[in-house]
Amino acid sequence: MRPLFHPALEDIKPEAILYALSDPERVAIYAKLAGASGSGTCSALADLGDRVIPKSSLSNHFKVLRESGLIMSERQGVEMRNQTRCTELDERFPGLIKAILTAYGQLPGQPKTD
Amino acid sequence: MRPLFHPALEDIKPEAILYALSDPERVAIYAKLAGASGSGTCSALADLGDRVIPKSSLSNHFKVLRESGLIMSERQGVEMRNQTRCTELDERFPGLIKAILTAYGQLPGQPKTD
DNA sequence: ATCAATAGTTCCGAATTTCCGAACTATGGA
DNA sequence: TCCATAGTTCGGAAATTCGGAACTATTGAT
């Protein structure tokens, strides 16, 4: 297994962020992660309510999020810990992530973000 | 030629906005349009400095921008007038467009946005 | 009215990207 | 060592994107 790539803060490209978050499934995963207290493992985030994302697709979603700079992943034993890089990111792109999550939140059909 | 489709404000989807603006060429076009005083025709926006976008690609870019709700296009004689819907959009998704344009603007290699 | 020029759209095929099942890899127990 | 668990990689079918060539709409000239 190749080591996971994480871009340095200054290498993060806005187009990659926007692209990553232009997929509602990915946003849902990211939003859960952003609001999560603990875990943040892949499997814990696989269930979107209306659909369970296949393993390989999920893995790819995490890869896109990771390589765009949105999240940090690290192996912890047999599972993978994921956490957002939102503090860093907000430094680089002020207000961006918040505006995006707010935009999605305003949409009907997202009753709880628990 | 099919009539041009413009989504109603309430039908605009954040994923469409993010997708449309996840392409640097499209952002460049949009930013020019947002900063433009007059024209806003396709051909006037085709020249990005480093490359001249082919007609059909350009037409497609405008279609993506239009159908995502970012711009309004209307025929005026032989040409097409395009204008941003940024005021409306900011009402629906507060701060979003500004944060995105700011994020792109901070990138090196975009010396002038004239 | 017809013709030519201009501005942009549509069509369609090649190249690229996405999606996901199946096979594989890494780690931690029993 | 062998098994179970969590996730990654492979590979090919399906969907998307890109852009040249052909087409359409409008204006102006003859």
From TrEMBL, chains A, B:
Pfam families: HTH_20. One of its GO terms (molecular function) is DNA-binding transcription factor activity. Residues 16-98 form the HTH arsR-type domain. It comes from the Bacteria. InterPro entries: ArsR-like_HTH (IPR011991), HTH_ArsR_DNA-bd_dom (IPR001845), WH-like_DNA-bd_sf (IPR036388), WH_DNA-bd_sf (IPR036390). Coiled coil: none annotated. This is Helix-turn-helix transcriptional regulator.
